[in-house]
Design brief:
This protein is of the alpha/beta class. Helix content is about 25%, strand content about 25%. A 6-stranded mixed sheet has the order 5-2-1-8-7-6, with helices on one face.
Length: about 160
Amino acid sequence: MQVSKLIRFAFSKHSRYLVVGGGTGGVSISAHLLRSGVSSKEITIIDPSPNHYYQPGWTMVGAGQWLIHSTSQKMEETLPKNIPLSKETIKVVKPEENKVICESGAEFTYDDLILATGMRLQYEKIQGLKEALDDPNSGVASIYQLNYAEKMAKIAA
């Protein structure tokens, strides 16, 4: 009896501009490149998120001027037209090789890498802050995270 092995094939793609992050920063720089005459075929965006969140709009949510659902839409609906999107998750960046390697094994090479991954909030680094943010009865909120922006709107009302 012969046992067949599952062989995982990784693909490789080259882009002139590889944009890691499909948030406001990644979308803005990609649109700027297009307006500057760069072809959409020369740009690739990598972001595993199914949704794009317009984080600057969370300020308006916190002020009670917008509803939270108006700050989110499907990633494909947000990106500039005809720019390829990969839903991969980056595992390793190898700048000396102009390459990123994804968790799936896929590799992307580039001429220029644009990191627009946003920031990682660490509320827990400030003693008591995370607990206060999570407490619906506290007067502590933030416009820098989706659920806390909604809390800000309730406090401000």
